[in-house]
Specification:
The structure is a homodimer of 157-residue chains. Chain A is elongated, with a radius of gyration of 18 Å. In chain A, 38% of the residues are buried. Chain A has helices at 29-39, 43-46, 48-52, 63-75; strands at 19-26, 87-93, 103-115, 122-132, 138-149. Chain A has a five-stranded antiparallel β-sheet with strand order 1-3-4-5-2. With 157 residues, chain A is an alpha+beta fold. Chain A contains four helices and five strands. Chains A and B meet through helix 1, helix 4 and strand 2 of A and helix 1, helix 4 and strand 2 of B.
Chain lengths: 157, 157
């Protein structure tokens, strides 16, 4: 992999099929409840007892909490994408619940690279990021479109 | 709109084209930075000065923060969906940045309703939720698939 002199990845450094693995994040019940109190205050994210009789059958993390942890793991990967991890949007799915004490990691693969026609200094990269737990079970799939600068003529040079 | 005796919305209470408007949430720089420190520690979410020379040209909220605030606004709507707002996944896009002091609200519309064949007690509802700022500018579009229980024979009865 070619790395620029600043040690970050530009569009030219990426290729379809390229894979990245993140560090891990260990969840616990208190993190699940703290996120839920602020952003998703529903019984199945707030309280073990109340969660038992819901769709989830027990305490589960908000999907948006899993998405936020996934982002934390993505932005801490090295080498980093030049200019940062900037997403225009994408598709997200949560095939199964995330539970207290799950240890999450993110495995990503470059799916598509499209240089921009109107903006020669950058392009759009489609990155599929699977968030897995310690049993290698898929808890989230995020297919995101990222804005990535080109090295030649980019402001980051 | 028909409301069940518990005051919550079941699959039978929803129809395509039905619209909902949330309360508002007022953002500020400190909220943006606090979320970023925990989940998306990139310069354009952490520091006004550092943000000035980035893609965003100034401090902007993490897209996942906007998603989390959108969820908070969705779950606080009344009448609530029976069993809670339970998303299996969806599509998300951030057409423009969210800034300090933006006042966000969510306007949602039911796009599709599909009773489940394998699970007669529930169905899947596609909800398109637009998150708008105080200038009625679109900052996020979320098209989410929600699990919604039927009133007849549902465990919520």
């Amino acid at each position: 992999m070619t790395i620029s002199k600043t040690g970050s990845l530009h569009l030219e450094d990426l290729h379809v099929g390229q894979r990245f693995t993140s560090a891990t994040h260990t969840l616990d019940a208190e993190q699940i409840k703290a996120f839920a109190r602020q952003f998703d205050p529903q019984p199945f994210h707030l309280d073990e007892q109340a969660a038992a009789n819901t769709f989830f059958g027990g305490l589960a993390a908000s999907g948006w909490h899993v998405a936020a942890i996934t982002m934390k793991l993505l932005v801490s990967e090295k080498p980093a994408i030049a200019g940062g991890v900037i997403g225009a949007g994408g598709e997200i799915a949560w095939p199964r619940p995330t539970r207290p004490d799950d240890v999450l990691r993110v495995e990503s693969e470059v799916i598509e690279i499209k240089p921009s026609r109107s903006r020669p200094e950058r392009g759009m990269v489609t990155l599929r990021s699977e968030t897995l737990n310690q049993r290698d079970e898929l808890v989230q799939v995020l297919t995101a479109k990222l804005v990535v600068p080109r090295r030649a003529g980019s402001p980051q040079d």
